[in-house]
Amino acid sequence: MPEKNIQYQVGLKFKPSVTVKELLLRLLQSAGFDMTTLVDEEDRQQWMLSFYVYDKKALEVIRASLRSIRLKGVVCFTKEHHKDVWSVQWKKGWKPFELTKRFYVIPLWQERRSYPKGMIPLYLDTTNAFGTGLHETTKFTSQIIDSLQGCFKTFLDVGTGTGLLAIVALKSGATRAVGFDIDPGAVVAARQNLKANGLKAVLKACTVERFVPLKKFDLVAANLVSPDLIEFRDRIISFVRPGGWLVVSGISLANIARVKKAFNVPSLRLLKVVKGKEWAAILFKIRDENE
Ligand SMILES: C[S@@+](CC[C@H](N)C(=O)[O-])C[C@H]1O[C@@H](n2cnc3c(N)ncnc32)[C@H](O)[C@@H]1O
Questions:
Q1: pLDDT, tens digit, for every residue of 209-258?
Q2: pTM of the entire predicted model
Q3: Pocket lined around ligand 1, Cβ cut-off 6 Å
Q4: Sheet of strand 154-158, all strands in order from the earlier edge strand to the far edge
Q5: What spacing in Å lies between the alpha carbon of 71 and ligand 1's midpoint?
Q6: How many Å lie between the centroid of ligand 1 and the Cα of residue 247?
Q7: Architecture of domain 125-286
Q8: Least reliable range by pLDDT among 20-34, 72-86, 242-256
Q9: Which CATH code, of 1.10.760.10, 3.40.1010.20, 3.40.50.720, 3.30.70.260, is assigned to 6-91?
Q10: What is the Cα–Cα distance from 85 to 5, expressed in whole angstroms?
Q11: Which of 136, 146, 168, 224 should be mutated for ligand 1, with most atoms under 8 A from CB?
C-alpha cells in the first residue's frame, strides 16, 4: 500500500530557458505523461517541471522515463515530501487567473484576494479533485456556460470534480445546480468549494450509469473522457430537457471526429465546437417538438 503521508516529487530541473522548457514539454507529452498533473515552477536560478506521486512503483516508472531524456543541463531529481509540506508545496505554482471574460479564479489559500475590476471572483481549492480551471476542458466548458448566462435555470454537472462548473452555472443565473462524481473525495471538495463561494448545490457520489434525475435539466455539462462520453451518450442526453443545452468536453483533438460522429443523432443540433491546443468542447441543443 502506498504511504499516504509521503508524496514523491519527481521531475527535471534546468537553468531558466524558454527553449529548453518548450522542448521538455513536447518530450514529456509525446512520452505519454499526463500533462494535467504537471507542476511548473520557476525561480530566478532554476526552473522545474515535476510530478507528484504517492506510490513508489509509479515513482520508479516516471523516474526511468525522465532519466531517458538526456539533454545537456537538464537534471532528473526526486524529493520526498511529508504531507504537511507537499500539500502546500504544489499550490505555489497555482496562481489566480482569468477563467472566462467575467470570472476570475482565486485559490482559496491565497492571502491576497484582489481581482481585476469588473470581474467576478471564484474561490477554489483543488487539492483533492480535478478542475483548477486551468485545464482547457474545464476552461472551455466554463466559457460556454458563461456564454449561456440567463438562458438556463437548472444545471447538471456530470463528473463534478472540484464543482467549478456548478459554481460558474450558479453565478451565470442558474437557480438550481446538481452535480455528481464517481469519486466521493471530489464530492467533499466540491461541497467545500460551493460553500466557500456562498453557494448551494446538490452534490452526491454517484456514477453516470446510476444517476436518476428527478427532473430533466436546462443545461448539462459532461467533462469526461471521450470513450465515456460515447458509451454514456444516451444517458447523458436523457438528462437534458427538450430545447435545453448539452456541453460535452474532455475531448482530445484526436477524438473530435469520433465524438462528433457518435453525437450525430436526430435529437441533437450541433451549435459550437471550441478547440484549443490539445482539447475541445462541443455545445449541442436538444431539439424540441417544434424543430
Ligand atoms: C475531467 S474531470 C472534470 C471535473 C470538472 N467537472 C471540470 O470540468 O473540471 C472528470 C470527473 O468525472 C469523474 N468521473 C469519471 N467517470 C465518471 C463516471 N462514470 N460517473 C461519474 N463521475 C465520473 C471523475 O472522478 C472526475 O472528477
A1: 999 999 999 999 999 999 999 999 999 999 999 999 999 999 999 999 99
A2: 0.74
A3: 129-131, 137-138, 141, 157, 159-161, 164-165, 180-183, 186, 207-208, 223-224, 228, 250
A4: 202-205, 176-181, 154-158, 217-223, 240-252, 279-286, 268-275
A5: 36
A6: 14
A7: 3-Layer(aba) Sandwich (3.40)
A8: 72-86
A9: 3.30.70.260
A10: 10
A11: 224
